[in-house]
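Much of what follows relies on a compact textual record of a protein's fold. Each token is a code from a learned vocabulary of local backbone shapes. The record below shows the convention in full.
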Amino acid sequence: MTIDFASVTLAMAAMAYLFIFGLLVSRPLSTKADKALLLALLCNSVWLMVLTSQALSGEPGYEYRYSLEIIRNGGWIALFSVILGVSVRKIRKGATITISWFLLGLLILLATLGADAISRLLEAPELIPTALVPVGQVLIAIGGLVLVEQLWRNSDQNAMNHTKYLCIGAGAIFGYDFFLYADAILFSRISPALWEARGAINLLSSPLFGVALVARGRNRFDVRISRKMVFHTSVIVFTALYLMLMAIGGYYINALGGTWSKAVLITLLFFFTLLLIVAGSSHRIRARLLVFVTRHFFNYKYDYREEWLKVTRDLTTFDSDPDLSQSVVRIICSLVHSSAGALWLRDEHNHYAQQAAWNCQRLRHHQIDVTSELVDYMTQHEWIVNLREYREDPTLYNLMELPDPIEQYPKGWLVVPLYVREQLFGFVLVLKADMHVDLNWENYDLLKTVARQAGSYLAMLEAQDDLSEAKQFDAVNRTSAFLIHDLKTIIAQLSLLVKNAAKHRHNPQFIDDMIHTSEHALGKMNNLLQQIRNPVSRDTVVRVDIAALIAQAFEQVARRQPRPKLDGPTGSLYVEADREKLLAVFVHLLHNAQDATAKTGEIIVSLKQSPGWIVIFIQDTGSGMSDEFIKTQLFKPFESTKGLSGMGIGVYQSKEYVRKLGGAIDVTSELGVGSCFTIKLPAVEPE
């Protein structure tokens, strides 16, 4: 008895799987998947023990190893069928129909190989020629890999932590079997080196099953069968069968011999590989495969959840109007495997104008009148117009006449209306599909549903554009209102001068005041002109002495009664601001206090310093304001208690500028008692 590498690794692998088997037996088998895993581990262990015995002593014979390998493969396939939720009862009910038919084919293949193995054990005539046995083994390995791929792709995210180890372990076993027997088909014999390494491969895979068992704990395998799952399964199966045919063809070419055989084999392998790559990259072939899978394995054409998520994702990933218009055309066309189309939307002139053309020529004369028969038909019937049906039998569409822009697309196929609030907002012209598509109620319902969603997005974007335009006009109007407000203040000052000129024209002090007021008005006018010429000019920020600024504000309002008084300390308190704008804030608040207070009343201004802040209080004994007015109107533009003489801008403008400086304006008031405005500004250190 010779102990070699193969016998050692096979024995170690058998013990490893027996250990995992014992680990699973020691735990409660609460699910069918647990029992199926137990069976698969047991079959694999027994098979490895038989291989060990063969490697050491040559006994038992090939027939026993062959039979146990069929049982071992059946155990793994049974495990994956249980995890994927397939049973005979579900097959009869039509559930999980695609994977069920696939497993049924594997079962028939296993049964055929099993019958052949039994006949060999009984020394009866072979049911399958020995040369074709590796072909059956390759097909079983392909089936196992497909099941592994499905479990990996469709496992619940929470279950993936333990499922991935099971998939990697089983995938390694089936993958190596595929490689082993495919090599045997090509070279008409099993490679001794590959066969001897089989035990080591199973040994290296065994820890993955143990990790999967420990990581799973008491969790369940959670798998969901989806259309994407079936589509990828079909791709893998077709690819595997294609490679299988390549291998068989290569085998026969090699068997024929001759001086050209190897060169021809290499050439054909390269050609068929290139053909497979080209076919896999073809949109039309993938679309046909998807239609084939949908037609033969599902009751419905679409996975509506996937379609809706995809449509929503595509509609929400746009940056501008043209991008959304193109996206809408592309989304609607892709629902029926078309790769070209155009979009018309209603414009402000009550015409339908072409907004986008995807993979087709954009028309120069594209307007469609709202009174056209096509628009009238879609408005009345809310139905998709099939131009192919229309050309075959126009009576189906009331013998309507198609507009010229639609006729200019000879490959036009479908006209899909876009409705917003039961009004025809626009429509999409879908050009001929890349392949023949049989339309039924599912296609039409999905097209209409997606078209409504797309129409709402387009309408929302149009409303957003209108709102943006309105905001631009609002900004212009607001700027004009601010300018008029400042002009009104200047006019009021000059009017007061003119009114008092006859009475005080010989008073030198009045002349000085008039000159000072005129200079101030001239400065304000120059500032307004500068603002008009350069509306985005930055403020001239300087260090401002608040006490000196308030004293200047007192001078500007000194002609009116009651005159404000400064109460409390007036030390050096500084802020950084545009001096003229901050002065305008205090002047406006003092003017408002004078307007609200009787001539016999009082207006007291006081300053207070707190860490990092300067707080100014402007308190009056005027008429006061209600809480409702303060909350809803005081700081809103164009709201005023002064009737036609006020514009309601000053307080709003003052608050906005103080907030721009990083401060705040607050107010407390009581009707019949008075008001107190509190201005809080960030302080800076004196130079």
User: Anything to note?
Assistant: The first strand starts at residue 341 and ends at 346. The domain at 304-467 is CATH 3.30.450.40 (Beta-Lactamase). The radius of gyration is 43 Å. The CA atoms of residues 63 and 123 lie 9 Å apart.
